Amino acid sequence: MADNYGAAAEFYDIAGRPYWKPRAAALTKAMSAAVQTNSPIVDVGAGTGLVVAIIGAALATVPILAIEPSPAMRAALASRVQANGLAPRVTIAAGTLAETTLPDQIGGMVACGVLGYLTPDDRHALWRLLADRLAPGCRAVVDAAPFPATRTVRPIRVGVARFGVRHHEIWLGSRPTDPGRIELTTMCRVVQDGRTVRESVSTVQWWALEMRTIVAEATAAGLTCRRAGWDLAILTAGPDRPLDTQRSGTVTSTKC
Ligand SMILES: C[S@@+](CC[C@H](N)C(=O)[O-])C[C@H]1O[C@@H](n2cnc3c(N)ncnc32)[C@H](O)[C@@H]1O
């Protein structure tokens, strides 16, 4: 099967790091109840392991199940897990969410940057699974699509980093396709002295999931849902604390 992230994995962290930096405190706080349960936190679409590293550093004892189907992303994930001393408690599942056997009780879940890959049926199944298996008081963090289903967004440079004499850039754009669907375009470029020395363009199809849809669907499945910033939602299987105790900081960046 083709690896959607084969070309972009090398560039992913250039946008992913600044995206997660202002969200790390809210993420950690949302996952903190897992410590009392000793049930795993599940990171769906763990990518290069940015979320695993944040949670792993903050919550010293919690086991983590990192689900990641892309071999290229998984290479970075495994490397980060080892480099951060997390290997004894991070299990890496090489597949999609649907292909992975999940624990009976879940201490927390993060599904960010990934809901757009799930069909509406798969998404509904995810909400039901969370309602059934999230341990009492534990939470899931999910996000809305970065781009709307209603208009084209011309490519935006979402990250740039220096590597020696060159700069690596990552750009994202999108255009509507079918109703509720978008085509996301990722362009990765290496520039030296104003000249492009390497470039790749890849596209993926996404469900452009809006926050109000997340809230409506999750609530209908029996979850308590509240916002944390413009793109994150925190879901609980029972009642949760008020929003203002866990609001995240400035959240303006994006990644895909
Ligand atoms: C945009 S990246 C997000 C990475 C990470 N969650 C983050 O926020 O930094 C999306 C990731 O989800 C993975 N993915 C795509 N479809 C998936 C599925 N059905 N189940 C699990 N992971 C999936 C991709 O391979 C990719 O690594």
Automatic annotation (TrEMBL):
The keyword Transmembrane applies. One of its GO terms (biological process) is methylation. Keywords: Membrane, Methyltransferase, Transferase, Transmembrane, Transmembrane helix. The chain crosses the membrane at residues 46-67. The keyword Ribosomal protein does not apply. GO terms for molecular function: methyltransferase activity. It comes from the Bacteria. This is Class I SAM-dependent methyltransferase.
